[in-house]
Every structure is written in structure tokens, then in C-alpha cells.
Amino acid sequence: MPLTDLETALATIYPQDLEKLAADLLAERGYDVDPTGTQGADGGLDAVLYDDDRCGVLHVSRTQSDRLRGKITSDAEKAAEYDQSYDFFVFVTTADPSGSLRRRLEAELQDEYGWTVNIWAREQLRNALMTDHQRLVREHLNVDPGVPRVGQREEIIELRDDRLDCIQNRTELPNELPDGPTVVVHVIPVTAVTSTDPTPPGNLPAVPFFGHSKRVPDAGKFVSDGVVGYNHRVRQAYPDYLYLNESGWIEGVSTEYFRSKPGEDGGVIDRDVDRAIAATVHGSLYCFTDLGIEAPVFVFVALLDAGQYTMSSDGIPEFTKGWFPDRFTAGPVELETLDPDEFELDHLRPVLDRIWYQAGRSNGSPHLSNLDESGDE
């Protein structure tokens, strides 16, 4: 997979610039950084760090992944020989090791020296810089991390399209799903197509049900590449699920919001489907918070096999009803914040309004237009 602009900048940064970036990054994350008396440029100690009453040492290295073990072992030996004793050891590197190797090295050094060890490799640097420290990216790397490359956007859309094919064909699903029209929500961070360090399913957080923002502990099950949540109390085939993939993307699927007309083709779509979509996205943000996933994140919505279905007009002023094709898609919408406490229905206006435009309502979602008129639905 091609490197992002940010990853390319990190991979090619000069050692002195990496030291400055690392020092500024750790300072912004709450450490007191003292570079006084450091040797720099891979000559040894790069800075002393203070975290309340704890004292640590920072080493910075631009090195290749296959040389990481030797470099960090050498630097740890040097740190152990300093006159001052330390409580923790931070190693910042442009190497891109596997997550298992990084964690193994941290554990080995902690066992050897008794320090708390934290290795900031390229992926950890990129994830931290993507949103929380964009000023540092622009200042030190001359890159805008908030703008995904065209290639990344294409990969995200390709991932979404592949999943829609699977759902429509009822193949490669994380949980059994009844046949029939389906609403699908995908919430995909850019890191889902750039990360090379998936989270083991057993370490993934609990997920909500489709249409709900609150998570239910132990309500789901682990599968080979993620965790899936569904309502165990439903005795027949489960009509929906919410799936969190090990790469960090979320798929919510439901067949509950469609009511067929006996003896006729097609039927009616529940008007509250957009509320369910919003609740599903809201619940996804709690999962992302637990995983440390940061923006940019993109939301897609689809209605599958809903040809000859119209939107329910119950309680809505009369409008000319429109029909849905067998594959209707809306999005993406980019979420500017992943804080669940700041999420609002209006953040999804482009996709929710588009659903209602297709349904024939010229002023979009009634839930949003009511908010526009009164400020409170």
C-alpha cells in the first residue's frame, strides 16, 4: 500500500528535525522537556522528560525497521549508564515495525531495566499527528494531515463498495442476516486503509446494536477479524448487526426498517431510519475513542434492494413520493470531531437529506427541517 504524504515526510525527515518534532510533540502531550546538555543527532541522550515527580529519558532515531532492535537496545544501554536514574524511557523512531515487535521490545526493555517503556514508531507518530497536533505537522513536515490523498479516498470507497456487494449477496458477513431490503451504515477512518497494525479481536471494545448509541457489555461475539454486536433476545434470524473490524472500520446493517405490502411488490420504509443511522454513527464514536482512532473519518449510507419502496409519510406534510433504486448510496460525510459528546444529528445532514430528497421530500429530512424551524425537534 502506498505511503501517505505524512508517512513519506516522516520516513524522510532529517534526524535533527525529527528530534525537534519529538520534543515539541511530547511537550504538547504534557511532558516538561529539557534538552539542555543533550548530544542529539543519534549521539545519545536527546532530552530529559519530566512528568510530575517522574523523570524520564528521550531518545530519537531515524532508522530502518530491520535495524530497530539493535538501535533501541544500544540506546537503552547508554541510558542505563547515565549518572541520573530514570523512571521511564521514550524512544521515537521513523521505523515502521509490526505492532507485535514494538510491544515485545517495550516488554523486554521494561523487564531488563525496570522502566516504563514507550516506543513511538511511524504509525504511532502518524496517528497522534493526524488531528491532535496538526500545527506540528505543518510546522515541521510541511504537510496538511487533515486532507486524505486521492488514493486513500479511492481505497475507502472501494472498501465500502466491496462490503455492499457482500451484503447484497449475503456472503462474507460477520453474522447471519435475513434476506430483503437493507439499510447499511459504514463509518471508515482513513487509518483503516493505511494501518498495518490491526487490533486483535479480543482487544476490541464492546459495540452497540444497530440504531443505538449505548453499548451493551457482552452483547456481541468475537469473529476471526473483529467483533459483532446483535440482539441475542431475537429468536429468529437476527435482523441487524453492528460489526467492528480489526482494522478499525465499522459496518452497521439492518433489515428492520422496511415493511412490505402483502400481495404487492415493494413497501414502506420507516421514517425513523435516519434517526437509527445517526444513533449508529454516534455509538461508533465511542468505539473509536476507546481505540484511539482519530479523524478524518467518513460516513457512508446505503439502501440495498429497496426498489419499489417509498418513505413512510406518517405525520409528515404531504409530499410527492419517490422510489429507491436497488442500490442507493449517499456520502461520504467527513466528521470533523470524533468526540461522542459533541455529536449532533446535523453532522449527518448531507446523507440524511439526500435520502429524503430521493424519497421525494424537497426540504430533506423532516427531523432536520424541524430543527431548522424550531431549534428543537
Question: What does this entry look like structurally?
Answer:
GO terms for molecular function: DNA binding; endonuclease activity. This is Restriction endonuclease. Keywords: Endonuclease, Hydrolase, Nuclease. It holds the Pfam family Mrr_cat. This protein has 377 residues and is of the alpha+beta class. The chain folds into two domains: 5-141, Trna Endonuclease, Chain: A, domain 1; 150-374, no CATH class. The chain has eleven helices and 15 strands. It has a seven-stranded antiparallel beta sheet, sandwiched between helices. Strands 1-2-3-4-5 form a five-stranded mixed beta sheet, sandwiched between helices. Strands 11-12-14 form a three-stranded mixed beta sheet, with no helix packed on it. Strand 11 (258-260) and strand 12 form a beta hairpin. Helix 1 (5-12) packs across helix 5. Mean pLDDT is 86; it is low at 371-377.
List keywords for this structure.
377 residues; alpha+beta; Trna Endonuclease, Chain: A, domain 1; 2 domains; 7-stranded antiparallel β-sheet; 5-stranded mixed β-sheet; 11 helices; 15 strands; 35% helix; 21% strand; endonuclease activity; endonuclease; Restriction endonuclease; DNA binding; Restrct_endonuc_IV_Mrr
